[in-house]
Design goal:
Blueprint: E1 11-15, E2 28-35, E3 38-43, E4 47-52, H1 53-59, E5 71-74, E6 78-87, E7 97-99, E8 103-106, H2 109-117, E9 124-133, H3 137-141, E10 147-151, H4 154-158, H5 162-172
Parallel strand pairs: 5-9
Antiparallel strand pairs: 1-2, 1-10, 2-3, 3-9, 4-5, 6-8, 6-9, 7-8
Length: 187
């Protein structure tokens, strides 16, 4: 468990200034699973240059249909060729996971077909890769400088541009990230 005594599924994990890992600089991670065995989140703070949703459909030879050609997000450094869709709970497939009643996560080609065919979720975000932590790893990281968790505001998911999510998430928590120290102190 985290230092606060609760798991972070359905919340956002925000990189603090000076996190020390360029892969996670200004990261906004939608935490999709967090329990005593580990954690998995999908990065939503950056998109992949030159990659749109239609490109993903083309890779699976799926007609674009009614699918909007949204930018694909950099979900994280783990398995960067593996795709995920964070979406509203109005659609469910064989592997769809409900995330704390706030959003859902799917990772099979069925959701791509449903979106293209107009039968998918009303709101969705596609990503490649994920951020993952082994047993106790995230909990240990949360005791050091690097991460800040905040509520999983749905507007941040669907109504905020990727490049604005980090600042908007801190604003929503009432924090000016420019006022945060970029390292922890020592006693």
């Amino acid at each position: 468990m985290t230092a606060r005594g609760a798991f972070l599924s359905g919340q956002f994990l925000l990189a603090m200034p000076g996190i020390g890992d360029p892969r996670f600089e200004r990261s906004v991670i939608a935490m999709c699973a967090h329990d005593s065995e580990g954690a998995l989140g999908i990065g939503l703070g950056a998109t992949i240059d030159g990659l749109g949703f239609h490109d993903l459909l083309d890779q699976f030879e799926i007609a674009h249909g009614v699918a909007e050609d949204k930018r694909v997000h950099f979900g994280g450094p783990v398995e960067p060729r593996r795709g995920f869709v964070i979406h509203s709970s109005d659609w469910g497939g064989q592997d769809t996971i409900d995330v704390a009643g706030r959003w859902a996560l799917s990772g099979t080609v069925d959701i791509l077909r449903a979106i293209a065919g107009g039968t998918g979720p009303a709101q969705w975000i596609a990503a490649l890769g994920y951020a993952g932590w082994g047993e106790g790893q995230l909990d240990a990281e949360l005791t050091r400088h690097g991460w800040f968790s905040t509520k999983g505001d749905i507007a941040l998911l669907y109504d905020t541009a990727a490049e604005d999510r980090w600042s908007a998430a801190y604003d929503g928590a009432g924090i000016d990230p420019r006022m945060l120290a970029n390292r922890t102190g020592t006693a």
